[in-house]
Write a structure and sequence with these properties.
four-stranded antiparallel β-sheet; Elongation Factor Tu (Ef-tu), domain 3; 4 domains; conserved putative lor/sdh protein from methanococcus maripaludis s2 fold; 370 residues; alpha+beta; 5 helices; 28% helix
């Protein structure tokens, strides 16, 4: 009797549990939320409008406009050395003397023969006046005298060349000889240069060269005197473009009358050639590609839009935008390498609050004369 009563209860309990499980399963499925796609993390900045001073930066080595390697034009032994390296010399100053004993003997011989021929000419004139000699004889004597006079002049030049003199005001930069050394003709004696007038040659791409002009101011620094800035100006621009490099030679003149600088110093040149008062400016970090095919990713409604742009002049971390985006646009500056057109993005940092201040401070630091 007890077994018959418990079996129905057991069956009822199983039915109840089965019903409860089937009733709760649909509610669990209905409460699951759909997944939302995540955007790619990027950092952005806003395009602003402000001042920009276009600059061209280049490096060059300072060179002396007037420099020369002095050589011995006559052979001989070095008798005297009158200057040393680093000495400032004036034009015409005697620097060294070479033994010219042989040249002097030749000069004396030529001068003696010249006097003899002069006497022949004087005597021939008297004889010709008395018609004691033909005119051709006298003409020959005058011709021989003229030739010998030229030979004497050459001999005097040879003797004078035994004295090495400075061809211009400058500084002795190197001494090649020693006292007592035997020199051959055209052996190097001294190097000298004029430190007061220096030059630097820049190789400027043809696209940038069209904006340069003679007389434009240039500022530069040298690694040896990094704390100082020096002024210069563009002196001349080559009229042709180098076919191999596609560049134009621009010569910068440096007034160095205080002799602070020296030839051979490595200089970092900065040419300010254009000031724009109301330019559309974008961080250079937002620009992808090259100058001829540049793009930027503009963030619109949470998506990155690949936008072709045309850039202009650069200054520091900013670049001028001529076409493609307007002031106020939000562009990606970090993380754009992994983006595709229309990709969802998540902006981690936006410099909208500081970009305008940055652009104004950049402009103030780069205005002409600043």
């Amino acid at each position: 009797m007890h077994r018959r009563t418990s079996l129905p209860l057991f069956i009822a309990l199983i039915a109840c549990l089965t019903g409860c499980a089937s009733s709760t399963a649909p509610s669990a499925v209905s409460e699951k939320k759909p997944e939302t796609p995540e955007g790619l993390p990027v950092e952005t900045a806003h395009v602003e409008q402000g001042e920009l001073t276009a600059r061209y930066a280049a490096t060059a080595t300072l060179q002396a406009e007037h420099e020369a390697k002095l050589v011995s034009e006559v052979p001989g032994t070095v008798l005297e050395l009158l200057v040393e390296e680093g000495a400032r010399v004036s034009k015409g100053q005697l620097l060294a003397r070479i033994d010219a004993a042989h040249s002097r003997l030749q000069l004396r011989e030529a001068e003696a023969d010249l006097q003899r021929r002069k006497n022949d000419v004087d005597r021939g004139e008297k004889l010709l006046a008395r018609k004691l000699i033909p005119a051709t004889t006298h003409d020959q004597a005058e011709s021989d005298y003229a030739v010998r006079r030229a030979e004497v002049a050459i001999a005097r030049v040879t003797v004078n060349k035994a004295e090495i003199r400075a061809p211009f005001d400058g500084v002795i930069t190197r001494r090649w000889i020693k006292q007592g050394q035997l020199l051959a003709a055209n052996d190097a004696v001294f190097d000298m240069a004029d430190f007061a007038d220096l030059r630097a040659e820049l190789r400027v791409p043809e696209r940038d060269a069209v904006a340069l002009a003679t007389g434009q101011p240039v500022t530069f620094t040298v690694d040896a005197l990094a704390a100082r800035r020096f002024d210069a100006k563009i002196e001349r621009i080559a009229p042709i473009v180098d076919g191999n490099s596609g560049t134009v030679k621009v010569t910068v003149r440096v007034d160095n009358r205080d002799r602070t600088l020296r030839p051979g110093l490595f200089a970092r040149m900065d040419v300010a050639f254009l000031h724009l008062a109301n330019a559309v400016l974008m961080p250079k970090a937002a620009v992808l590609g090259n100058r001829d095919a540049a793009i930027a990713y503009v963030v619109k409604e949470g998506k990155a839009r690949r936008t072709p742009i045309r850039t202009g002049h650069e200054n520091g971390s900013r670049v001028q935008i001529l076409e493609g985006v307007d002031a106020g646009a939000e562009v990606v500056v970090t993380g754009q390498a992994s983006l595709t057109d229309g990709a969802l993005v998540e902006v981690l940092h936006n410099d909208a609050s500081s970009s305008f201040v940055q652009s104004r401070s950049v402009a103030a630091a780069t205005t002409p004369g600043g």
